[in-house]
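Lecture 7 notes: from sequence to structure.

We start with a single chain of 105 residues. Read the sequence below before looking at the structure.
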Amino acid sequence: MVNYVNPVNLLTVNDQHYLVAPRGETQWVKNLRFQKTGELRVGRKTQPFDAMELGDREKTEILRAYLKRWKVEVGVFFDGVSANSPESDLQRIAPNHPVFRLTFK
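Now the structure, written as tokens:
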């Protein structure tokens, strides 16, 4: 088994943990869709997790929170949409940004 390491921004909303793919359909997204599991490493600490991808209708609240928290770093990938954009804009970009809910083991 090959291990891949990718920097990600973990987002916590209402005690749930999420990974958002600001750059869309990247290789880590494809791998996570296939494996449905991974490990989050912060320093020396490693946490295994299971991942469930959200449907587009479930993403808007998460995308808004992600943009509020991380827009300075990744905002360029969201087609001008910000945390203050209307719901319709978030729904428009949702298909372009996979979101996974993590459950730590």
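The mean pLDDT is 94. Keep this in mind for problem set 3.
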